[in-house]
Amino acid sequence: MYDEEQLLSNPLKRKKYQGFWYILLLLTLLLYATCFVAFVPVSLPSFGRWLWFSRGIDFSFMVVGDWGREGHHHQKKVANAMAVVARQTNPRFIISTGDNFYDYGVSSARDKQWNSSFESIYDSWLKNIPWYAVLGNHDHLGNLTAQVVYSNRSERWNMPRPFFSLPVTSRFGEEYLFVFLDTTPFIKDSYGEAARRNGRQNWRLQLSWLEKLLNSSTSRRIFIVGHHNLYSSSIAGERGREELRILLKPILDKYSSRIVAYISGHEHSLQHLQPYGMDGMDHFISGGGSKTDPLKDPPKESRQYWYDCCKVLPFGLSEKDKPRALFRASKHGFFVFKLYRSELIAEVYSQKAKLLYSYNKKILP
Ligand SMILES: *[C@@H]1O[C@H](CO)[C@@H](O)[C@H](O)[C@H]1NC(C)=O
Ligand SMILES: *[C@@H]1O[C@H](CO)[C@@H](O)[C@H](O)[C@H]1NC(C)=O
Ligand SMILES: *[C@@H]1O[C@H](CO)[C@@H](O)[C@H](O)[C@H]1NC(C)=O
Ligand SMILES: *[C@@H]1O[C@H](CO)[C@@H](O)[C@H](O)[C@H]1NC(C)=O
After folding, report:
1. N or C: which end of the chain has fewer CB within 10 A?
2. CA–centroid distance, residue 153 to ligand 1 (Å)
3. Which protein residues touch ligand 3 with a CB less than 6 Å away?
4. What confidence tens digit (pLDDT) does each residue in 70-121 have?
5. What are the φ/ψ torsions at residue 163 (nearest 5 degrees)?
6. What is the pTM assigned to this prediction?
């Protein structure tokens, strides 16, 4: 403080002081320029991307669910917000958590909805980003083969089979595994019936495929994607699916030390859940791609009942080692996941591209 005052009052010293900063600035710029030439391909579209790189980010991806309504019910607004955020965050791909086309899926790979609910909606900055999609219960009311076949007609739609996996090697050599499930055939309602009939899908086969896949994978950073959620923090919707807690959870538990998160849609809201407390696997619900559903808390006195029967997780409690919901919003929006060397950041954005929630978690190197 004393020195600074002196410097300011002494014009000669002040000049020297400024000179020091000019030299420092020059050196910094020189250093930046060297790094830029040495490490960054000239074709990089934005400087922001490079700044990210220097912070140690591996890659990012977006997740949107429950969307295909020909732009209506806020679908186009969410898509525009995705484009705004994509421009800033440069996602490597976009994941769809299903219910891609309402109400009855698509009828063929030439269905008009491919244009009116997908290609013409997710445009501008989203145009060149690949999508990896799972099927939702509404998709199961239409032609499933068409959603697979369209992968060959589209530059960006990817669904090689109704359930599949995607290994991703990051620029730091980290191995990720994304597993895309078809959850509807597990579900014991009319949609599940249709799924088992139309798709002739053997859900037992899918489970043994999953078990084999996780067993043989060496990745320590696995993301599981399915349409239906296992848990919820609301009693208003379907409250998570018991069938998945019975059939899927034992497999997820077995490999939980290597699974970073289970990501779903189905409920038309945005939620972050920790069914086993802060040290367990995170569950995210990204179902705000078009319509939203209200959220509802169980009354205080029946919380335990709702947890016991339906695994409804309490929201607004901060007991870190207990089942809990950290975030939920009945809002139109989507998630962005950013992966760093040893950290995951999950962000929720609204249809106005406003950041609603941000969560970070250490992940094993
Ligand atoms: C489903 O879509 C595929 C691809 O467009 C088409 O070949 C097939 O005929 C369709 N099935 C039915 C039942 O319409
Ligand atoms: C695609 O959909 C948009 C929006 O619904 C419409 O304006 C456009 O004419 C459609 N293009 C084709 C080729 O059908
Ligand atoms: C996509 O095209 C390739 C090459 O033509 C073919 O082998 C593959 O079976 C096609 N996939 C689907 C789902 O139609
Ligand atoms: C993976 O499968 C092998 C062979 O079936 C078995 O011996 C091993 O215990 C399995 N590993 C895990 C982690 O389940």
Report:
1. N
2. 14
3. 148-149, 151-152
4. 999 999 999 999 999 999 999 999 999 999 999 999 999 999 999 999 999 9
5. -135, 140
6. 0.85
